[in-house]
Every structure is written in structure tokens, then in C-alpha cells.
# Entry
Amino acid sequence: MDVYKELPRTSFSDNMLTGIGDDWMLVTAGNEKDGCNTLTACWGGIGNLWHRDAAFIFIRPTRYTYEFIEKNEMFSLTFFPKGYKKALSLLGSKSGRDGDKITEADLKVQYLDNVPTFEQGNLCIICRKMYYLDFVPERIPEEVMKRFYPDGDFHRFYAGEILKIYKK
# Structure
């Protein structure tokens, strides 16, 4: 089994446009005592906010992972090598409320700095929540409203300070 090793931020050079948009990531929150949940995301970003390295994620309040993000200060973004798209698709289509979708996807939770991630991942970004904002319907273009929000289930935007980056 490969082991995660901390990567200095100055050495981080992964392409997040393809990593998030094409390859997808898992957004995971929780803790060892209460458990965790994860969701598959293909929206998000990496950048800088208030002179801090930051990750940007979007979660609908109806998602089970939202409850874990709200209750916990930390969350992880986990990226996987090729060959995990089927597992990530399953994790994005099922709710952890209805069963153990992580086991069903044949993934194993691992905790780094007391934050849940996955043994099978090859890149893990540990974040601490630093800001959130709810989407406002009046500010969303009409074509986006029709495509992504026909039921009015608007995302919450989170900015998380990147504390550590781990890579295999």
C-alpha cells in the first residue's frame, strides 16, 4: 500500500482544471467518533483568498455530506488515479443516508490529521472552513437556473483554507 506524504505547497503543480472538472474529486467531512460521508464533485477550485491558499467547493443543503460539513471544521478533497470513475460515479449517485455507499464503492476511509480521506486516493487536500455563502437565485443566469436548479435546490459555497497537501 502506498503511503501519503506531505507535499510542500511550493511543490504542488497538479492541474486542477482537469483534476476537478474531468477526473472528479471526493469532498469528505466527519470524524472518527461520529463517522463521515462523502460526495463526488466536479465543480470547485483551488486558489487564494485573504492571502491564504484556498479550496472552493459547492454543496447542496439536501446532500447528506452537507450535514457533516456543517458539523465539522475540517474537510478533505481527495483525487484518485485512473480507474476509479465507476466508484466515484456511485458515490455521486447514492446517499449515505440510505446505506454504506463507501463500502459499496469498495473504498476504505483513512484519517489524516483526524480528517477523513481514502486509502485509494493519490492526492488529498486537507482544508479548514473559513467562509461560506448561499447562492442567491437572482444572481444566477436564467439558463443556469433552468439546467441546474429547476427545483430551487441551491448550493452553498464554501471556501476552505488549505492546511496540508498529501500525495502518494
Notes: Helices lie at 16-21, 64-71, 85-93, 101-104, 142-148. The chain has a mean pLDDT of 92.
